[in-house]
Amino acid sequence: MTKTPLSRRGAALAATLLSAALVLTACGGTPEETPAGDTGATGETRTVQADNGSVEVPADPQRVVSIGNTTLPFIDMGGEPVGVTEVGASELALVPEEQNATFEAATILGSSGDQVDMEQLAGLEPDLILAQFPESEFESVQEQLESIAPTVFWDLDVEWKALADGVAEAGNVADGLSAQKAEFEEKISGIQETYGAIIDDTAFVNLDRWDSSDPGTFSIADFGCVEIAQDDIGMDFPQAAEGEEPLGWTSLPFEQLAELSTYDVITYPVDAEGQPTAAFAPVVESNTWQALPAVSSGDALGLFCPGNNSYGPVLQYLDSLDAALATLPAEE
């Protein structure tokens, strides 16, 4: 969807809504006392911290709009946004059916954070906007967003757990987050206890390849779900030196697959059915891959990573990792 500039009508509506929001905040008015419509809001507010500073938000927001990377995490924790920006078909294909239905029920406001239709957004009468997209793009629309509803913004460099905490607090879905965190900690502990010897004595390497990769190339990926295996579980994967660019940014020719013979176990991306992803399939079809000791011995493990920006998809990754590690010979 292309951007629709804020029209005079939209600006006027936005100003009206801002006035309504100020009435709610300053006077603690009930929905019946404000022109904001039957939102179910209590009028109580609280202050949250985000990359755009301290933001006073409704204690129990009823009409939340999520923009950019906040959409799937908010839905994953039980949120039901009234408006969203577009999410790629490949991402939605990995989302549980009920969450997909929640996304489909929301109004699509634009293709990205800086392409939001402001008039349409204002027409939804949101009482809270959650947003994560590049700060340079946010700066161009910040004033418009904040004139419509309290806006909580995070830049892209926010770590995924911190984003989940922030979205849960601002969007009042902390109960959903707490349950996910408990399950996450349980799975991490279970993997560490069950495969402790393997984790301690195994040199892993994680490979990836994307649709945008040049033909005949792959990458040693050190970002994404592998960060959870490395940082939370303690598995030994190659990673970039402090201050250096991620290893995954460098494309390597298939010929260099032979250099991976020094690693005990190779991990690579698979889809929900356990098959190599379409982008990675050319790697596993190459003769160099087939000749690797880890491949011929069955120590090349396909892992399903539906996402790493909220706990729901991360829990699916941990299930996949658990099942894959179970296929390795037990360490003495």
Protein model, in words:
This protein has 332 residues and is an alpha/beta fold. It is 40% helix and 16% strand. It contains 14 helices and 12 strands. Strand 3 (64-68), helix 2 and strand 4 (83-84) form a beta-alpha-beta unit. Mean pLDDT is 88; it is low at 1-39.
In percent, how much strand structure appears in the residues? 15-25%
The tally of beta strands, per DSSP, is 12
The class by helix and strand makeup works out as alpha/beta
Q: Which spans of ≥5 residues are poorly predicted at pLDDT below 50?
A: 1-39
Using only CA atoms, what is the Rg?
23 Å
Mean pLDDT: 88
Could you give a short account of the major beta sheet? 5 strands, parallel
| Mass-distribution shape | elongated
Count of DSSP-assigned helices:
14
Biggest sheet strand order reads 5-4-3-6-7
Query: Level of helix content?
Result: 40-55%
Q: Cα distance, first to last residue?
A: 58 Å
Could you state the order of secondary-structure elements as H and E?
HEEEHEHHEHEHEHHHEEHEEHHHEH
Task: Give a quick set of tags describing it.
alpha/beta; disordered N terminus; 16% strand; five-stranded mixed beta sheet; 12 strands; 14 helices; elongated; 332 residues
Compose a concise summary of this entry.
The protein is α/β, with parallel strands linked by helices.
Give the SSE layout.
Blueprint: H1 8-27, E1 45-50, E2 53-58, E3 64-68, H2 71-76, E4 83-84, H3 89-92, H4 97-105, E5 107-108, H5 118-123, E6 128-132, H6 135-148, E7 151-154, H7 160-171, H8 174-194, H9 196-201, E8 204-208, E9 217-220, H10 226-233, E10 252-253, E11 265-270, H11 281-284, H12 287-290, H13 293-296, E12 300-304, H14 311-325
Parallel strand pairs: 3-4, 3-6, 4-5, 6-7, 8-11, 11-12
Antiparallel strand pairs: 1-2, 8-9, 9-10
Helix pairs in contact: 1-6, 7-8, 8-14
